[in-house]
């Protein structure tokens, strides 16, 4: 059942609606049940003796755990705490929707959302060592769904003269599994496995390509006493430092772009400056969307796209609408999940790119 912390948060949300305007799901579906408040109300009903049934369970996955509600909460409540616990509870009770269970089963079998037996099969890792002081942690999305970003990151590091390693059969961090089934024992075990693999590589610095991985390593791993010995840096932060120091030399690009902030970076890790420093160094003119920095509207993310592609298409459409309202026709992403979602349906006359693709193009 739910923890007292989850109930406390749910009880706070159930009579409040102050963050509704920021929810990318309820904004697009128009359904009140998709707001944080409604989810809080459902969990508080369970606390008061109502049966947690399949219709309630379904609602708990109609959320991309983007944290916009949490970030905007003046009273400091955290809907993601009870939403994650509700997901765990629904799975234990056997009432999670079939589309969700299809992805959960893949994760429990293979530790990744794609059900891939070999997550690295699309990467060219020839000549890349598996041990070293600087470890590039690629993550499941950039390894499997958008491997062009991993390839670009490795080319940029080589051009900057950085000796880096990549773990062989890189274990997943547990970030996406933790969102899908909650922070249950399986996820903590996955975290421990990954942390041990990082330690065994001799890494002193971990460059996490996916902010979702950086977030769980910096926050939850520490809370679970399994943080790796190495310092974990987000890739945007690391690459911005290579640009600032002149280690990575760039030729200027030209044009107007709009940065799409990833919630894991802008809200959970409080990092909005590195991507802007990179875009500026590239000579690009960033025209901000109305909702940017920590108020950024989520595009849905890679996990939602796997278990509910129709809902992910709606959140993707919502973010493109934000670009269509300003004088920019190009989104620049800073997270593999954002790139995967936003590139899946690009409106005519618009384009999406990622800062790694831009850095690769502009560096020599
Ligand atoms: S997260 Fe905060 S603002 Fe949003 S419903 Fe809960 S209490 Fe209200
Ligand atoms: S985490 Fe994001 S999607 Fe989920 S209820 Fe909060 S704002 Fe909506």
Question: Keywords, please?
Answer:
globular; alpha/beta; binds iron/sulfur cluster; 3 domains; 4-stranded parallel sheet; Rossmann fold; 7 strands; 7% strand
Major beta sheet, specifics? 4 strands, parallel
Q: How many β strands by DSSP?
A: 7
If helices are DSSP runs of H or I spanning 4 or more residues, what is the number of helices?
Answer: 20
**Which kinds of small molecule does this entry bind, naming each only once?**
iron/sulfur cluster
Structural class: alpha/beta
The percent range for helix content is 40-55%
- Written as H for each helix and E for each strand, in order along the chain, the element string is HHHHHHHEHHHHEHHEHEHHEHHEHEH
CATH architecture of the largest domain: 3-Layer(aba) Sandwich
Please state how the strands of the largest beta sheet are arranged side by side: 5-4-6-7
Task: Supply the number of structural domains.
Answer: 3
What do we call the CATH topology of the largest domain? Rossmann fold
Low-confidence stretches: none
Distance between the termini: 55 Å
In CATH's first tier, which class of the largest domain applies?
Answer: Alpha Beta
The coarse silhouette is: globular
Strand content is: 5-15%
- Round the mean pLDDT to the nearest integer and report it: 97
What is the CA-based Rg, rounded? 20 Å
């Amino acid at each position: 059942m739910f923890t007292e912390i989850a109930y406390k948060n749910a009880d706070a949300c159930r009579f409040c609606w102050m963050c509704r305007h920021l929810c990318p799901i309820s904004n697009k579906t128009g359904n009140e049940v998709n707001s944080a408040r409604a989810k809080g109300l459902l969990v508080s009903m369970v606390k008061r003796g109502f049966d947690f049934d399949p219709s309630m369970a379904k609602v708990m996955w109609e959320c991309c755990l983007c944290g916009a509600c949490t970030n905007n909460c003046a009273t400091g409540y955290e809907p993601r705490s009870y939403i994650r616990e509700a997901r765990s509870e629904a799975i234990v009770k056997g009432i999670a929707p079939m589309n969700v269970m299809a992805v959960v089963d893949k994760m429990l079998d293979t530790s990744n959302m794609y059900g891939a037996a070999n997550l690295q099969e699309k990467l060219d890792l020839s000549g890349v060592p598996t041990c070293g002081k600087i470890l590039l942690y690629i993550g499941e999305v950039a390894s499997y769904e958008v491997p062009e970003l991993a390839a670009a990151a490795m080319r940029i590091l080589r051009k900057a003269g950085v000796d880096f390693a990549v773990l062989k059969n890189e274990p997943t961090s547990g970030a996406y599994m933790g969102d899908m089934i909650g922070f249950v024992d399986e996820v903590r075990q996955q975290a421990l496995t990954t942390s041990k693999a990082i330690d065994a590589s001799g890494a002193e610095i971990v460059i996490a390509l996916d902010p979702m991985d950086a977030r769980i390593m910096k926050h939850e791993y520490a809370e679970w006493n399994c943080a790796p010995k190495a310092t974990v840096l987000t890739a945007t932060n690391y690459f911005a430092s290579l640009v600032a120091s002149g280690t990575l030399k760039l030729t200027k690009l030209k044009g107007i772009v709009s940065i799409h902030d990833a919630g894991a970076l802008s809200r959970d890790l409080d990092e909005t400056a590195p991507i802007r420093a990179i875009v500026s160094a590239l000579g690009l003119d960033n025209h901000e969307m109305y909702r940017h920095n920590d108020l950024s509207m989520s595009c849905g993310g890679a996990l939602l796209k796997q278990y509910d592609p129709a809902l992910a298409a709606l959140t993707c459409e919502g973010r493109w609408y934000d670009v269509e309202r300003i004088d920019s026709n190009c989104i620049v992403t800073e997270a593999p999940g954002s790139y995967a979602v936003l590139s899946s349906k690009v409106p005519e006359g618009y384009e999406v790119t990622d800062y790694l693709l831009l850095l690769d193009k502009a560096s020599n």
